[in-house]
Amino acid sequence: MSLRLADAAATEAFGASLAPVVNSEEAHGLVIWLTGDLGAGKTTTTRGLLRALGHTGNVKSPTYTLLEPYSVSRISLYHFDFYRFNHPDEFLDAGLDEYFSDGGICLVEWADKALPYVPQPDIELRLAVEQEGRRAELRVFTERGRACLTHSSLTTNPPPDAK
């Protein structure tokens, strides 16, 4: 699936439309890779998702902290950013592998910098800057990812300003 997102507000609305995906029974342990260049909208998408789940606090990029954990709407959600990794072993050195085995939802930016240690995605969301807006492409890799997307109306009812 590919959507054009007109601006940051549409990107955040797209993130909000993912709330049913991570709020489903099948989402236990779901791994979503957020890929795209700097400024492509990965954290903006995450902010929209968290707001739709009921989070009212600050949502910031975990570029310097590596991880921002959230507990919202009975979900443990972990937002990772491995952009600053110089070597994949930093993933293990930081003990981040334990977060991928506790059943929480893991949103991962710059996963390629932690390969081969970071788990492969159930769903990958690719974001790219396109003219004034962005292009979002959603790819599913596992049955769990496919089952989670059945709880979303993305294919039949895209978010506002998405085409």
UniProtKB/TrEMBL annotation:
It is found in: Cytoplasm. The keyword Lipoprotein does not apply. It holds the Pfam family TsaE. Coiled coil: none annotated. InterPro entries: P-loop_NTPase, T6A_TsaE. Keywords: ATP-binding, Cytoplasm, Magnesium, Metal-binding, Nucleotide-binding, tRNA processing. Gene3D superfamilies: P-loop containing nucleotide triphosphate hydrolases. The keyword Cytoplasm applies. Belongs to the TsaE family. PANTHER family: TRNA THREONYLCARBAMOYLADENOSINE BIOSYNTHESIS PROTEIN TSAE. This is tRNA threonylcarbamoyladenosine biosynthesis protein TsaE.
